[in-house]
Amino acid sequence: MARSVLVTGGNRGIGFAIATAFKEAGDNVAVTYRSGEPPEGFFGVKCDVTDTEQVDAAFEAIQAEQGPVEVLVANAGITKDTLLLRMSDDDWDAVIRTNLTGSFKVAKRAAKGMLRLRKGRIVFISSVVGLLGSPGQVNYAASKSGMIGMARSMARELGSRGITANVVAPGFVETDMTAVLPEETQKQYLGQIPLGRFGLTTEIANAVRWIASEEAGYITGAVLPVDGGIGMGN
Question: What is the pTM of this model?
């Protein structure tokens, strides 16, 4: 039976691949986006996840279109990479606000409807960087690591109502962002990955779709690494 799915930041990259995977499985999929255009074939809602009013409005529009959100994928995120001593307060605040606080806002709003339904799936898109750390990404790593504590607390709070909260932690993935890395940097990263290649956005999407499925109904508070072995589940 088709479910009402929301993927934040679902208009490109990993978010678009996730939205596509759910759609191909027969679900009704809405995506939020902050800039650009919504992808064709999806119900698109312009929304800045850091703005509570915009989040509320987005959920109301989605409910009117395809019913209350039963599966939330909190994927919207930004980077502002620079070394610690050069990182401004604004660089820190912007990344934490979008990646961590934004995920909190959409999860809190989704949980309202899920509690009424007595079922639901919340999936946070973290990163191997949140587990291993990365030079120049103190803000990003903190935001992605914070998702784990958030998901596990929600898992404990919401589990008795049939709601699961899990984290998917992608490694290095073939996207526009990795394509522009210097060849030497790419080689350096590949040398650390046991499988010897970057991941595909579809591989991340399939893992997200599975952990939000009925088959994974007894999994909650988990961190699922999809990283070619670079993190070894740390």
Answer: 0.96
Q: Which of 33, 140, 189, 218 is catalytic?
A: 140
Query: Cα dist. 182→161, 177, 187, 189, 200 in Å?
Result: 48, 11, 9, 11, 19
Q: Which residues contact 193 (CB under 8 A, 6 or more apart)?
A: 171, 172, 227, 228, 229, 230
Is 140 assigned a catalytic role? yes
pLDDT tens digits, residue range 44-73?
Answer: 999 999 999 999 999 999 999 999 999 999
What rounded mean pLDDT belongs to the chain? 95
Residue 70 vs residues 31, 89, 116, 123, 206: alpha-carbon distances, Å = 14, 36, 11, 11, 18
* Interval 114-127: pLDDT, tens: 999 999 999 999 99
Question: Which option is the CATH number for 4-226: 3.60.40.10, 3.40.50.2000, 3.40.1550.10, 3.40.50.720?
Answer: 3.40.50.720
